[in-house]
Specification:
Elements (H helix, E strand, L loop, with lengths): L3 E5 L6 H9 L17 E7 L2 E7 L17 H9 L2 E7 L6 H12 L4 E6 L6 H7 L9 E2 L8 H12 L1 H5 L36 E7 L5 H16 L6 E2 L3 E6 L2 E6 L2 H6 L6 H15 L2 E7 L6 H12 L3 E7 L7 H15 L7 E4 L8 H15 L5 H14 L4 E2 L2 E2 L2 E8 L4 E6 L7 H14 L8 E6 L2
Parallel strand pairs: 1-3, 1-4, 4-5, 5-6, 7-10, 7-11, 11-12, 12-13, 17-18
Antiparallel strand pairs: 2-3, 8-9, 9-10, 14-15, 16-17
Helix pairs in contact: 9-10
The structure holds guanosine-5'-diphosphate (2 copies).
The site of one guanosine-5'-diphosphate has 16 residues, from helix 7.
Protein name: GTPase Der
Organism: Mesorhizobium australicum
Family: Belongs to the TRAFAC class TrmE-Era-EngA-EngB-Septin-like GTPase superfamily. EngA (Der) GTPase family.
């Protein structure tokens, strides 16, 4: 059972900065203006070996001092309700203010365990403010700097102290813990003119390719996947092999696998190894709807792996990562955590990509891998109605309108999904030439979050209206 942490405090103490630090990306927008309204956000977070959900309440934290209770908005209270633990954030540089006291009362009344986080502790003169923190009656302040990433080991220890080790670290997970929920960063707003991928036809087999560097285990994986099914369906049934693909069935779903065997023979020429496998990878990618990138977990994320991942995104395919040879990993928990972090950092274009540890040799993890393939395929085919999209857009515009450029506001009139496979959206705007990339990214991130478009490329194009 995982748990939820709500980040609470008055405006401008650094809640969003802490949220981003824990989530590992710039999801929420950080703004210097106090009280800038933002959406409440929930996201998977990681603090060293702790994994939990975190809720950012930035933008919801309007205290109303005219009422006796100093009530916060319903949004903040809801966050408190959903939380198992509260990070109550103060600004050590500014010291404790009356607003802090109001918020502290509400946090305390929630009855949830609270950790008092004294942020901006790196700033000159922060010690005084941190000491004032004791007055709030929320226990010992944990000094951190969300902006500079300082003090986080102490925050980790505080979580363990508050929840107990078993709860904080999670139940002993199976060694082959799937990365189902691996958070990843990035988005792709490039190349809206990329070649159209054929429309979805559920009667046709789902096309899959397995790519990766030589020796990553592609052939072994393909054989394991197809061989397993052969056992279930009998030696004769369901498998046909032509020059480029193999058809088989998994969980009642027809599949067609690009046959990578040809690549291996060519790859014998050592000098050309790298070039060849990228080119062959491209053929496989163009064939497929879902592409499994096989990484050798003992030597993951070499340059070529990243080139291949990049190709998949540019071609608009649905990617899934298999961390293969997991049977050789001696410290699965730790390695998993490290690989998760690396994936986040290195593949920012496909936020939320599914990455599954497997052993092609022993067969472990293959079911999880196929589940990830199915789920990613579904996301890749997602279609969101224009009504839902525009209701979402209205909310976004109300809470965080686009910035003014040279004193004139940009207007966003309308959003519609023009394409699936991968999802592509058209945004009707005024002054498309001046439209800031950062705001576009914000919108794409919002779309991803709201409609759960995880792990596949997302395209967004601007259309000028007046
Ligand atoms: P929120 O309104 O509570 O979400 O606060 P933000 O995360 O938007 O941060 C408010 C301001 O404080 C921004 O200008 C941040 O750059 C700044 N800030 C956040 N964390 C730190 C920190 O650790 N040290 C310093 N010096 N500034 C910080
Ligand atoms: P390809 O070049 O990507 O097709 O890689 P192969 O499937 O030929 O595998 C390369 C080598 O890695 C072979 O010696 C396989 O036996 C070995 N291998 C493949 N998968 C695994 C695995 O899950 N665990 C271990 N220990 N070895 C594996």
């Amino acid at each position: 059972m995982s748990y939820t942490v709500a980040i609470v405090g008055r405006p401008n103490v650094g809640k969003s900065t802490l949220f981003n630090r824990l989530v590992g990306k710039r999801l929420a927008l950080v703004d210097d203006t106090p009280g800038v309204t933002r959406d409440r956000r929930r996201h998977e977070a990681k603090l060293y070996d702790l994994y939990f959900d975190v809720i950012d309440t930035a933008g919801l934290e309007v205290a109303d001092r005219s009422s006796l209770a100093g009530r916060m908005t319903a949004g903040t209270e809801k966050a408190l309700e959903e939380a198992d633990l509260i990070f109550f954030v103060i600004d050590s540089k500014a010291g404790v203010t009356p607003d802090d006291r109001t918020f502290a009362d509400v946090a305390r009344r929630s009855g949830k365990p609270v950790i008092l986080v004294a942020n901006k502790a790196e700033a000159r003169g922060a010690e005084g403010g941190m000491l004032e923190g004791w007055e709030l009656g929320l226990g010992e302040p944990v000094p951190i700097s969300a902006e500079h990433g300082l003090g986080l080991p102490d925050l980790r220890d505080a979580v363990i102290a508050a929840l107990g080790e078993e709860r904080a670290l999670g139940e002993d997970e199976e060694e082959l813990d799937p990365l189902d929920d691996a958070p990843l960063i990035g988005e792709d707003i490039a190349d809206p003119d990329a070649e159209e991928i054929p429309a979805y036809d559920p009667t046709k087999p789902m096309r899959i390719a397995v790519i990766g560097r030589p020796n990553a285990g592609k052939s072994t994986l393909i054989n394991a996947l197809i061989g397993e099914e052969r056992l279930l369906t009998g030696p004769e049934a369901g498998i046909t092999r032509d020059s480029i693909s193999v058809e088989w069935e998994y969980a009642g779903r027809k599949l067609k696998m690009f046959d990578t065997a040809g690549m291996r023979r060519k790859a014998k020429v050592q000098e050309k190894l790298e070039v060849l496998s990228v080119q062959d990878g491209l053929r496989a990618i163009r064939f497929a709807e879902v592409v499994i990138i096989v990484l050798d977990a003992t030597i993951p994320f070499e340059k070529q792996d990243l080139q291949l991942a990049d190709l998949i995104v540019r071609e608009g395919r649905a990617p899934v990562i298999a961390f293969n040879k997991w049977d050789l990993i001696e410290t699965p928990q730790q390695t998993l955590a490290e690989l998760r972090e690396k994936t986040e950092r290195l593949l920012p274009q496909v936020r939320g990509i599914q990455a599954v540890p497997v052993s092609a040799e022993t067969g472990r993890g293959l079911d999880k891998l196929m589940q990830a393939v199915m789920a990613t395929h579904e996301t890749w085919n997602i279609r969101i109605s224009t009504g839902r999209l525009n209701r979402w857009l209205e909310g976004v515009l109300a809470h965080h309108p686009p910035p003014a450029i040279a004193g004139r506001r940009l207007k966003i009139k309308y959003i519609t999904q023009a394409k699936t496979r991968p999802p592509g959206f058209v945004l009707s705007v005024t002054r498309s030439d001046a439209f800031p990339q950062s705001y576009l990214r914000y919108l794409i991130n919002g779309l991803r979050e709201t409609f759960s478009i995880r792990g596949v490329p997302v395209r967004m194009v601007l259309r000028e209206t007046d």
